[in-house]
Design goal:
This protein folds into 2 domains: about 120 residues, 3-layer Sandwich (Rieske Iron-sulfur Protein), CATH 2.102.10; about 220 residues, Alpha-Beta Complex (Naphthalene 1,2-dioxygenase Alpha Subunit, Chain A, domain 1). Helices cover about 20% and strands about 30% of the residues. Strand 3 and strand 4 form a beta hairpin.
Length: about 375
């Protein structure tokens, strides 16, 4: 298992960006305990409905905010007050900004160090996203937009498919988005055109492919005639994909758990071919989702068992691994360095011998 320092991509262990941390249905007025970015965290929903994510341990005496089940604070339902959370040991209360805002048995000034790390959180599409930034700055790019989510002609995803906690650095997953050759040899497709583009915090992949082999899977017929795919990384951890002929969209999310360990999810939504959404339409959408899982699990099996590619032995017909890794490195360095890093690889990148995407796919 390789760590960030082994790849020599930047100053920080964990990257700047938006990351999935939970499904909305998992978060209520009892803390949801999790572990991301090398830290134990608690995620909870305040009385206003807003979700917060905090470092898990109270600075007073190190108590975990979410692990007690028998504390009076828990039994009396005083754990969540307003949009704040109380420590189950001594009742110190912390707001969504991580600052202690009440010590119930002390009327003096609250110690300035009585605070824990907090993450900006947004809730969209039935998912909870956090903004991680080693510099502690506000987000400098937005979450990806899914206008299909509010379109009544689209069948929404019903939650995340957890595809594994992988013993690999997320850079190995990002490599996939600039790897044209694996589409043939791993996924069994014939690629008709392919290109990548770097644009600031975004990395695009545009390709069209047709299945070359029969796969015994109930949903494969949805893509039998081939499909044009436009994918985009928004920052280092969220990959959106739109499958134009199929009328479908996918989210692939991967979030660092520890340095060199990554949690992988996916979910997909699909447009109805009928004027109304009935059981048949929902079944088709769920089958498409299963097919997306099938394809990504092919990748996950490789990622979970491969040796780290600290340096890719790249050939011209592989795809632009080097350029995408430079793009990716911007998120592991101070934000002030990002423009110069991106300037080295900004623009469209082609693969030797492979046609570029036509205009309709590039828009």
């Amino acid at each position: 298992m390789a760590k960030t320092a082994d790849y020599n991509i930047g100053e920080y262990t964990f990257p700047r960006g938006w990351f999935v941390v939970a499904e909305s249905t998992q978060i209520g007025k009892k803390p949801f305990n999790a572990h991301y970015f090398g830290q134990d965290v608690v995620i909870f929903r305040g009385e206003s409905g807003a979700v917060a994510m905090l470092e898990a341990y109270c600075p007073h005496m190190g108590t975990h905010f979410g692990k007690s089940t028998s504390s009076y604070i828990m039994v009396a339902n005083r754990h969540i007050e307003g949009d704040s959370i109380r420590c189950p040991f001594h009742g110190w209360r912390f707001g969504p900004d991580g600052k202690c805002n009440n010590i119930p048995y002390f009327d003096g000034p609250i110690p300035p160090k009585a605070r824990v790390h907090s993450w900006p959180v947004q809730e969209r599409y039935g998912l909870v996203f956090c903004w991680n930034d080693p510099e502690g700055l506000a987000p400098d790019f937005d979450l990806p937009d899914y206008p299909e989510w509010n379109d009544p002609q689209w069948v929404r995803w019903s939650g995340l498919d957890h595809l594994g906690d992988l013993p690999c650095h997320p850079i190995e997953i990002v490599d996939n988005n600039s790897d044209v050759a694996h589409l043939h040899y791993l996924h069994g497709t014939k690629v008709q055109y392919y290109e990548n583009e770097v644009a600031g915090p975004f990395l695009y992949q545009r390709e069209s492919a047709q299945p070359m082999i029969h796969v015994d899977h109930e949903a494969i017929h949805l893509m039998e005639q081939g499909v044009t795919t436009v994918s985009r990384y928004t920052g280092p951890g969220l990959l959106t994909g739109h499958f134009l002929e199929a009328g479908a969209a996918q989210l692939i999310a991967h979030t660092p758990i520890d340095d060199g360990v990554t949690r992988l999810w996916q979910c997909a939504l699909m447009k109805s071919a009928k004027p109304v959404i009935d059981d048949e339409v929902v079944a088709t959408a769920r089958n498409f989702n299963k097919m997306m899982c099938y394809g990504l699990l092919q990748d996950a099996e490789i990622w979970a068992t491969k040796r780290p590619a600290l340096q890719v032995m790249q050939i011209p017909t592989d795809g632009p691994f080097g350029q995408s890794r430079i793009w990716y490195s911007q998120f592991y360095n101070p934000r002030a360095k990002a423009p110069n890093i991106v300037a080295r690889v900004q623009g469209v990148h082609h693969v030797k011998g492979m046609p570029s995407a036509p205009k309709i796919a590039a828009e």
